[in-house]
Design a protein that fits this description.
53% of the residues lie in helices and 16% in strands. By secondary structure, the protein is α/β, with parallel strands linked by helices. The protein is globular, with a radius of gyration of 22 Å.
Length: 233
Amino acid sequence: MKIFLDTANLEEIRQGVSLGVVDGVTTNPSLVAKERKPFREHVLEICRIFEEQKIAAAVSAEVVSTDSEGMVREGRELAKWHKFIVVKCPTTAEGVRACSVLSREGIKVNMTLVFTPSQALLVAKAGAHFVSPFIGRLDDISEDGLAMVRQIVEIYRNYNFKTEVLAASLRGPLHVVESARMGAHIGTMPYKVFEQLFKHPLTDRGLEVFLKDWEKARESLGDILAPAKTGSR
């Protein structure tokens, strides 16, 4: 499963990309607004972070119009900014119409705010590159977000849709793991959730014990990291 960061914070993106396991970024107007920088400049800086590491990333940039004509106009402009950019549209009737137009023009579209398998079916037929089902937000209203992802993956497999399932609104490591088990192609998550993927108390405890044991044995064993001495002739 590919891992995307759901953030517009440049430092978080740099830290994630430096680990070599981050494949892209999903942004939205709210996330970009928090950074207090011009939108175009900020999105291009995100793209450059991946370019510097020679990673062919996907960076979602969202339209703000609510009518299909406006979405298409904005989507065409966003797609010109950088080859990594994927145009993000809401899953409304107008958004699906815009997705159909943009997809026919070869522009990659991420259809967001998906909450039902029927919505996912429509965006796949409209040619979406990504579909973004929101797991956590469904859980918030006592619905099963992971069940929705399972149904979407099943439908897409039944009909060999090329649209990739981008599991979104992931609230913790279990959401990530279960989405991967179900076959979601991508999981996008806040940086704090990404950090939690590394964490386990037994890992921390094990490392602590190993280091203490090494300190006890260091004098008798010598420093294994010290450069080997070469004999003189």
